[in-house]
Design brief:
Number of domains: 2
Helix content: 40-55%
Strand order of the largest sheet: 2-3-1-4
CATH superfamily of the largest domain: TT1725-like
Distance between the termini: 37 Å
Largest sheet: 4 strands, antiparallel
Number of strands: 6
CATH architecture of the largest domain: 2-Layer Sandwich
CATH topology of the largest domain: Alpha-Beta Plaits
Radius of gyration: 18 Å
Strand content: 15-25%
Order of helices and strands: EHEEHEEHHEHHH
Shape: globular
Structural class: alpha+beta
């Protein structure tokens, strides 16, 4: 059994006092989460949850939150999309080292989701790259969480599309995989 660290980010209706949120979450099985209420109407829950798999850990936390706060709307399961600062923290290296490493390995380093002043990557891809191309040991619990979270977030967003958009995405995905 592993111990999995992950975050759940929610949009909440305004007017729920922090004390009520804390009480409901605690009673609903989320005593293993740290609550972040920095932005009005937003809730971030940082979990450390033991479970047999990352999927089991995240799904059990999602169920606990839904039971505690049914009015909440899930925004993201993390870590998934990460910037340089978070990558450096998770990989236990400096920002400068990462910039140099990416520059020296531009042909093989995973493509960012967003390139620019603030790049974003899927953590699962970067951890896989580090293991394969740098021979570095990566935290397997973190890697398992990142892989599951990426899949979950994609599926969550796919469900938000209407039927025509879903069909179009399936067709485009088929074209893209045929070209690979």
């Amino acid at each position: 059994m592993g111990e999995y660290e992950f975050t759940l980010r929610y949009l909440l209706p305004t007017g729920l006092p922090a004390e009520v949120l804390e009480q409901r979450l605690f009673e609903g099985g989320c005593a293993d989460a740290l609550l972040g209420l920095g932005q009005k109407g937003r809730l971030t829950l940082a979990f450390t949850r033991p479970a047999p798999t990352a999927k089991a850990a995240v799904i059990s936390a999602l169920r606990d939150v839904v039971a505690s706060l049914p009015e909440g709307r899930l925004v993201e399961v993390g870590p998934d999309w990460v910037g340089m600062k978070e990558l450096a923290f998770l990989l236990k290296c400096s920002h400068e080292y990462l910039v140099s490493l990416i520059g020296d390995n531009v042909a093989t380093f995973p493509l960012p989701l967003h390139a620019g002043k603030a790049g974003l990557w899927h953590l699962a891809e970067v951890l896989g790259w580090f293991a394969e191309h740098q021979g570095k040991a990566v935290d397997e619990c973190l890697r398992e969480v990142a892989i599951f979270n990426r899949t979950f977030n994609v599926a969550k967003d796919f469900r938000l599309l209407d039927t025509a958009q879903r069909q179009q995405m399936v067709l485009l995905a088929g074209v893209a995989s045929a070209e690979e």
